[in-house]
Amino acid sequence: MAGKRKIIFHIDVNSAYLSWEAVDRLQHGASLDIRTIPAVIGGNPEKRHGIVLAKSIPAKKYQIKTGETLYAARLKCPDLAIFPPRYDLYIRCSEAMLELLREYSPHIQRYSIDEVFLDYTHMEEHFGDPIEAAHQIKDRIHGELGFTVNIGISTNKLLAKMASDFSKPNKVHTLFPAEVPEKLWPLPVEELFMVGRATAPKLHRFGIYTIGDLARADPDLLKKRLKSHGLLIWNYANGREDSPVGDLPGIKSVGNSSTIAFDVEDRKTAHMFLLSLSEMVGMRLRNAGYLAQLVAVSLKTKDFFSYSHQRKLYTATDATNQIYGAAASLFDEMWQGEPLRAIGVRAGALVDGSLQQLSLFDPGNAWKERAMDAAVDKIRNKYGSNMIMRAVFLHSGIRPLTGGVWEEDYPMMSSIL
DNA sequence: GCTGAGCTCAATTGCTTGTC
DNA sequence: GACAAGCAATTGAGCTCAGC
After folding, report:
1. What is the predicted pLDDT for the residue at A325?
2. Is A64 exposed, middle or buried, given 0-12, 13-18 or 19+ CB atoms closer than 10 A?
3. Local structure of A110: helix, strand or coil
4. In chain A, which residues from 123 to 152 place their CB closer than 7 Å to nucleic acid strand B?
5. Rounded to the nearest 5°, which phi and psi values hold at A18?
6. What is the model's pTM?
7. How far apart are CA A40 and CA A43, in angstroms?
8. What domains are there in chain A, each with its CATH number?
9. Are the CB atoms for A174 and A209 separated by under 8 Å?
């Protein structure tokens, strides 16, 4: 019945197609400044790969994924033009899309920088039929923001996401529960969300090759063989998923680690890596609004022997200096001087950042540290992670921030819907 | 030379086990 | 039961190689 059934949209930016379209426009003589194209990200925001454009190269060749290949390609073909990526612009485009989507529903969940869930339930009375509204959203994004999206429509997030992955670009697809046997079940089982390269071969061994095979499988057997994951994907194959559109459930820990290109054999260098990792962990905690009550350090020797130590903190914190202090202390306790190849820092036992309790033993610097961290975060979020760094990292060859995730406001896709 | 499959490694984080 | 230590499972990226 209109206005009562649950309706979820999954909006997925067609990044690749945006690039090809930009290339197309350029090649046809349009007055387009390629430096304004936001999709030139190569899939990896941290490495910020570029893109190659040349009139004589067929479109498929633009799918260069690594910087090395890109520059190697230029060596082979001097006519290639290489443009720097504009990830900051990509973020602004993502923000603009979110603003547009908020006109259609207050219930929005950003799933990654280019994927958004929108709860359209009860919105039919304002914006009409969901399929027509989805077409309107898709066309407005193309017309007003200049890129294309796929929109999947269903009654839950899982099916909406699966629907948006159907043929691209610039399409609207539905995948309502009644359509599951026809549209979802014939697909290969590895196309189901949460069936990756580890799970798919296991399912193949049970004779499960399509999503339909999985949906019809014995859930008890799946649970026995694949534990809770087996039951989860069985429910997904049957189109069952009921998480609300909104914030992700609370994370349990935040950690960063790094394998180092050389053996770390002295305490000073190790401490610098710990500080670099602590900077990243602290920044991620602050951006996510959490405080950590526990800090853990993990080490891997050059013989690939791993060990770790952790410690409960007197007071929960998100301050870089406090995380680093605990990490350095743990490191000093556990390290016996053996050459190290990997170092990790992890913050656990997380609590809500708005409930910070000051320690009776606090010397009074906590508020100063928080203000300093906040100022540094602001600069890094606005101008980039390397715009400000501790002097100790100057000319050290060690990055001031170590770890794979830093755009916490634009979360990487997670396995959690 | 290009493409895609398959493999390995790194990174991350939840879960389990051991200890006090 | 709380805490500490380590394992397990997953994904993504990069590399290699066979087939075309």
Report:
1. 80
2. buried
3. strand
4. none
5. -60, -45
6. 0.63
7. 8
8. 8-14+89-180 (3.30.70.270), 15-86 (no CATH), 185-237 (1.10.150.20), 254-393 (3.30.1490.100)
9. no
